[in-house]
Design brief:
It is built from 2 helices and 8 strands; from the N terminus they run βαβββαββββ. By secondary structure, the chain is mostly beta strands. Strands 2, 3, 4, 5, 6 and 8 form a 6-stranded antiparallel sheet that branches. A two-stranded antiparallel sheet has the order 1-7.
Length: 166
């Protein structure tokens, strides 16, 4: 966690649950909208190795049977660094790896998911990383907008793919 990162909710959800392989509550990562403020919510973490990333897979957390709801990220950025500044600033030690947007397949209104929406989200979303992006070890996910119109974010599971060879 870096300065400026949004706090996690206090009822059991934690950042490290985003990669624990479990899909049930409280094993998910949630930021807290009220304590995290109205601006974009950011989470930061070490992926454990320096590597050239090819994609990031994110499975949203369902609220009941609704995936495109509340804190599911709608528009977000992924940033990476090999050796980040510890200030929490998005300075020149961080590179923007991509800007992404989740599109609900059905186009149904907010709060309504059909079976195609549910199956698509339950499979998770693959987000490609630009082949020209630098090698990174640290990631930041910055939620610009969630499906409820805020900036808090939730992630049920996250996996990172790439090549850590020299």
């Amino acid at each position: 966690m870096l300065p400026g990162d949004a706090p996690q909710v206090t009822n059991g959800a934690r950042l490290e649950y985003a990669w624990d392989g479990k899909l049930t509550w409280p094993n998910t990562s949630f930021t807290l909208q009220t304590a995290g403020g109205p601006g974009p919510h950011t989470i930061s973490f070490d992926i454990g190795v320096l590597g050239k990333l090819s994609r990031v897979w994110i499975r949203p957390y369902p609220e009941g049977s609704r995936y495109y709801f509340l804190t599911t990220m709608k528009r977000f950025e992924i940033w990476g660094s090999a050796n980040p500044s510890l200030t929490g600033a998005f300075d020149d030690t961080w590179s923007l790896l991509g800007y992404y947007e989740v599109v609900k397949p059905s186009g149904l209104p907010y709060g309504t998911d059909n079976s195609v929406d549910q199956a698509t989200a339950a499979a998770g979303f693959n987000w490609n990383i630009d082949i020209n992006a630098p090698k990174v070890r640290y990631l930041r996910i910055r939620c610009l907008e969630n499906f409820a119109g805020g900036t808090a974010q939730s992630i049920a599971e996250l996996s990172v793919f790439g090549d850590n060879r020299n």
